[in-house]
């Protein structure tokens, strides 16, 4: 795709928006980047982009027409209803996500991973498998590094985490291997319905061809149904079924069944990352690795040694017999339920943040089953508390600050307990992102030693 002398509008000046603006400018495009934040709020980023020759519009949006722009690239967090994006769509101007634009410049095989929960762990695990196999991977996308910033690298394969926000504005995006982990209620404040949300996830399958692979969760009804939507070869994975073809567990072993042959990968008990949900992530990663031709020994070695990712069931410390676990990436009820299910010990749970349109009923019932106490903080605290009271949860503590939440949890815990931060909500009411929330949690936990 030739961007020379094209007029590009980038909407949103977060990490991916800045990366797109720089890439397009270096490719010879005339680039405008806009953001609803003021110049003061944007800080040095605005000045740095202007020095690179990018026009910056802060605190407002420019009008969009065919005469002004050839392409509009919204950042993932920007709703498609904001004026410049909506105007572009009405005018018939192409609207691309950052990963769509980046994929136009990638010739190497691309593995795309999406799903409500487990994306980052599975993406990192597939990255580790491809690295173990000597495939020189680039791990990028929603995991934190914009894909567009890595298109000129010397890589053998791209392993890309894809959010529903990124997928919904893809056009020709075609992964060699597409992995869809699960679809549970999340981001309904943006997508409106589960059908719309599932359709956004399924877009990574839209352009696949018979020589490609779709790795799909047989245990998830939404995902299993997507097998009918792809022309790719389907590899199912299942934690709870013994499949005739695909990746599953038999007699305690992770196995791949393909073409009438069964290949044992390793005992499920030897997978390093804990929890039933991580077994699902591991099975999905094996499916992707198998599709790429990675040897069973390399898959097994990675499963046995992969330590997990920061902010997802991350062990922080044990203090006075209490284990502190950082699961700040648990940003919806389903993810938090899976975190609760990973532990047999009594749990003191810290939850709350910005609600993304979630229902907390099932989450509250799981809290009742697994938790000694519940500490709530943030914007969603009243909604979670109402659901928890209805489920019979007690005691419930309310904190006005995040630091207070950690101290209340520490006071409620007994030796042998787990204090678990798994908020079931986004972080945006108090933090810039879940990483910032998780890092503060770790700092506060370590301060308890003093």
TrEMBL record:
It catalyses: UDP-N-acetyl-alpha-D-muramoyl-L-alanine + D-glutamate + ATP = UDP-N-acetyl-alpha-D-muramoyl-L-alanyl-D-glutamate + ADP + phosphate + H(+). It comes from the Bacteria. Pathway: Cell wall biogenesis; peptidoglycan biosynthesis. One of its GO terms (cellular component) is cytoplasm. GO terms for biological process: cell division; cell wall organization; peptidoglycan biosynthetic process; regulation of cell shape. The keyword Cell cycle applies. Residues 113-288 form the Mur ligase central domain. It is found in: Cytoplasm. This is UDP-N-acetylmuramoylalanine--D-glutamate ligase. Transmembrane segments: none annotated. The keyword Ligase applies. Its EC number is 6.3.2.9. Residues 311-425 form the Mur ligase C-terminal domain. ATP binds at residues 115-121. Pfam families: Mur_ligase_C, Mur_ligase_M, MurD-like_N.
